[in-house]
Automatic annotation (TrEMBL):
Any one GO molecular-function label of the UniProt entry: (3S)-3-hydroxyacyl-CoA dehydrogenase (NAD+) activity
UniProt xrefs under InterPro entries: 3-OHacyl-CoA_DH, 3-OHacyl-CoA_DH_CS, 3-OHacyl-CoA_DH_NAD-bd, 3HC_DH_C, 6-PGluconate_DH-like_C_sf, 6PGD_dom2, Mito_3-hydroxyacyl-CoA_DH, NAD(P)-bd_dom_sf
Keywords for the protein's UniProt record, in alphabetical order: Fatty acid metabolism, Lipid metabolism, Mitochondrion, NAD, Oxidoreductase
Domain of life: Eukaryota
Species of the source: Glomus cerebriforme
Residue sites binding NAD(+) per the record: 52-57, 75, 140, 145, 167, 191, 324
Protein name: 3-hydroxyacyl-CoA dehydrogenase
Catalytic activity of the protein: a (3S)-3-hydroxyacyl-CoA + NAD(+) = a 3-oxoacyl-CoA + NADH + H(+)
Domain 3-hydroxyacyl-CoA dehydrogenase C-terminal: 234-332
Family, similarity comment: Belongs to the 3-hydroxyacyl-CoA dehydrogenase family.
Length: 332
């Protein structure tokens, strides 16, 4: 996989399989991640299909189902679907307990009501039948995304809107394999989706006003706050966040300050819940390097902002990828 997805978040995510507490402003790691009523106009979306049942895909499915949309979760194997269900169930239980505390009947009703809006499918084409909005949250690879959308373009309803949840690949490049670029946009959720309020809506030149307004309406119905951005590398959040992380590394590499002091300074002086090195480790240093390498190759961002950092490159080369490998800038 040549690139990965990034996103920042505020909140905690603990599932019943892996009890890990996540802090705020975190990139989302890449995770690999039927059919309902008749077709509706673009400005009245009811049926949504989400491709990918990983952390992001499952989160999008959950918030859509919670807010009354009929949702199909699609992935290539049942084991991925089952894992997505586990993520959703664990999240719903936490939300139910928080919202209804001592009322077990209300908790049960909330969970059952949400789950009743969710169906699953391992058939990529059948999963999109009668869908008004198709959201892709699969592996962060341009060719893989293009292959999916090309197939869907030939089989999905002609009125269906296509959206990619990517945060590191150009929407224009993903969409060019379809014949519906006027119905194509980026819909970038942040992790964990049930807690994070922000959604970036990315418009390409061909995105129609009807498509754009439909996505605004959908995100608001999901209780999210949409912001709009052109199809520029990293969109808004990651375009600002990634260079910040790299500059922190350069500062420490020059010997201007220690890693620990940089993290402490940004937490106590700038109000950041995590320092840049803590954050980078939690994200995955390979994830960060892949994004930066891709941006540098693309050449659309000032070269100085995405210049390689020797320490980062060496850590990745040595397999020290951060928390997930037990060692990165810190040892875990």
């Amino acid at each position: 996989m040549s690139q990965f997805v990034l996103s920042s978040f505020r909140g905690r995510l603990t599932n019943n399989v892996t009890k890990i507490t996540f802090k705020t402003f975190l990139f989302r790691p890449l995770l690999l991640s039927h059919n309902f009523s008749t077709t509706t106009p673009n400005n009245s979306i009811q049926n949504i299909t989400v491709y990918g049942s990983g952390l992001m895909g499952a989160g999008i499915v959950q918030v859509a189902a919670q807010n009354g949309f009929k949702v199909t979760m699609v992935d290539i194997e049942q084991k991925f679907i089952d894992r997505g269900k586990e993520i959703i169930n664990a999240s719903l239980k936490r939300i139910a307990k928080k919202q209804h505390k001592d009322d077990e009947n209300a908790q049960k009703s909330f969970i059952e009501s949400t789950l009743s809006n969710i169906k699953t499918n391992t058939d990529s084409l059948k999963g999109a039948e009668n869908s008004d909005l198709i959201i892709e949250a699969i592996v962060e690879n341009l060719q893989t995304k293009q292959n999916l959308f090309k197939k869907l373009d030939e089989s999905a309803n002609s009125n269906a809107i296509f959206a990619s949840n990517t945060s590191s690949l150009p929407i224009s490049e993903i969409s060019k394999v379809t014949k519906r670029q006027d119905k194509f946009a980026g819909l970038h959720f942040f992790n964990p989706v049930p807690q994070m309020k922000l959604v970036e809506i990315i418009k390409i030149n061909q995105t129609s006003e009807d498509t754009y307004q439909s996505l605004i309406e959908v995100t608001k119905k999901m209780q999210k706050t949409p912001v709009t951005c052109k199809d520029t590398p990293g969109f808004i959040v990651n375009r600002l966040l990634v260079p910040y992380l790299l500059e922190a590394m350069r500062l420490a590499e020059r010997g201007d300050a220690s890693i620990e002091d940089v993290d402490t300074a940004m937490k106590l002086g700038a109000g950041m819940p995590m320092g840049p090195f803590e954050l980078s480790d939690f994200v995955g240093l390979d994830t960060l390097k892949s994004i930066v390498d891709g941006w540098r190759k693309d050449g659309k961002i000032d070269a100085g902002l995405v210049a390689s950092v020797k320490k980062l490159d060496n850590l990745v080369k040595d397999g020290k990828l951060g928390r997930k490998s037990g060692e990165g800038f810190y040892t875990y």
